[in-house]
Specification:
The protein is mainly α. The protein has a single domain, classed as Growth Hormone, Chain: A, CATH 1.20.1250. Helices cover 80% and strands 0% of the residues. It has 19 helices and no strands. Helix 2 runs parallel beside helix 8, helix 4 runs antiparallel to helix 18 and helix 13 runs parallel beside helix 18.
């Protein structure tokens, strides 16, 4: 199939953004594999390790709106390259860790900062600025799909190296992979040389940062999308952090956990492509609600039975399909309502709530496990909240399809 001319001209930028997203997301999503080895080898408990992951997600959420607000002034390239350096430094710090403070600094603060500067929000913003409106949703899905391939490679590779040597050697391999973030970010930064896109009518493109933020925070669909995104983060990071431990607790082969993360990454590709395509045809926020409902029902089905390799693979495939499909839908919803100029900042606002949920999902799961020796309470809470969030998201999206700001 021939590549459309409007995509061919900016293909290096899109490839750079996709590779950057693939590496940052894929390596981060595989960190849960290291929890059993690290907590048994150095003076770090399960709660402390999950606290580090929770700190990572919280730092990512705190820094994301700030980083997004700086891109109109400084450009994308310097911020994304700086993020790649911080990410690499975080992995090196984790690889050399001997106690909690270095795990918290590396896996928590530095990787969190790196994710804010060189992952989802900025890669989506870069992709959105390079293509016309008619194909934007599909291109966002394509970038998100390629960004899903990182976990497909990193998780099985990390587990194999860990079994053949140890967890430090596996993290050394991750450091080598993270080096590629730098040229990818540099290439994606070519977007700074493109002419700015024309202002969208009835958007925040011609407004100041303060006015754009006020516009978003008085828009009911934006507020609902932001709140339900909190539940999304809580569910996903709970699974990424604790599913390997859960499978080990149930007596499953450690390689199954690595394969699960790889399957999730592979099915992410199909899900991202589908929801990128679907978002250009149907209500993006209704599709978000469908994703949240589907994930929660899948979790209920899986965790109400004893895990086997067969049903674990089915669960991973289903969750993977609904995993990163939220990326193009949230980015597209922000653009549709508020334009491109402040997209990275406003998407960062929604994502900060996603990361607060991630913080609670990672740390809360660890606390529940340490208190009760199982994940039952955490699972019941996460599934119930996910079902509620999906229903509310769909109801509000169907009843408030046009732009309907709240009274100032």
């Amino acid at each position: 199939m021939a590549i459309k001319p409007e995509i061919r001209a900016v293909l290096p930028i899109l490839i750079g953004a996709s590779v950057m997203l693939s590496l940052t997301m894929g390596l981060r999503q595989s960190l849960g594999l290291f929890m059993p080895a690290i907590t048994s080898d150095i003076a770090v408990t399960v709660t402390q390790f999950t606290l580090a992951v929770a700190m990572q997600n919280l730092c990512w959420g705190i820094f994301q709106p700030l980083v997004g607000s700086l891109t109109p002034r400084f450009g994308y390239r310097p911020i994304m390259v700086a993020g790649g350096i911080a990410y690499l430094a975080g992995l090196i710090c984790l690889m050399l860790a001997q106690e909690f403070w270095s795990v918290g600094l590396g896996a928590g603060i530095l990787i969190g900062l790196g994710m804010a500067c060189s992952s989802t929000a900025l890669s989506m913003a870069v992709a959105a600025r390079t293509v016309p409106t008619s194909i934007r949703s599909m291109v966002l899905g394509m970038v998100s799909a390629v960004g899903s391939l990182g976990a497909l490679i990193a998780a099985p590779l990390g587990q194999m190296v860990m079994q053949a040597a140890d967890w430090r050697w596996a993290l050394a391999v991750f450091c080598l992979m993270a080096l590629l973030i730098l040229p990818a970010a540099w290439t994606a930064g070519r977007v700074d040389k493109l002419p700015p896109p024309p202002a969208m009518p009835d958007s925040a493109d011609d407004k100041t940062l303060k006015d754009a933020l006020r516009m978003a925070l008085t828009d009911l669909p934006f507020l609902v999308m932001t709140t339900t995104y909190f539940v999304c983060g809580m569910q996903l990071i709970f699974l990424l952090t604790h599913l390997p431990s859960y499978l080990k607790l149930c007596g499953q082969d450690p390689m199954l956990a690595a394969n699960v993360l790889g399957i999730i990454g592979g099915m992410n590709v199909l899900g991202s492509l589908f929801f990128g395509w679907a978002g250009g045809r149907w209500n993006k926020q209704v599709l978000l609600g469908i994703i949240y409902l589907s994930r929660s029902l899948l979790m209920a089905w899986y965790f109400l039975r004893w895990p086997t390799p067969e049903n674990t693979v089915i669960f991973a495939a289903g969750m993977g399909f609904f995993w990163l499909g939220v990326g193009p839908l949230v980015a597209g919803s922000v653009i549709d309502r508020f334009g491109l100029r402040w997209q990275a900042m406003l998407q960062g606002v929604t994502f900060s709530w996603h990361q607060i949920g991630s913080f609670l999902g990672a740390l809360g799961g660890g606390l529940v496990f340490d208190l009760f020796g199982n994940y039952d309470l955490a699972l019941k809470f996460g599934i119930s909240l996910g079902l509620f969030a999906g229903i509310v998201q769909i109801i509000v999206a169907l009843s408030l399809t046009p732009k309907t700001p709240l009274p100032a």
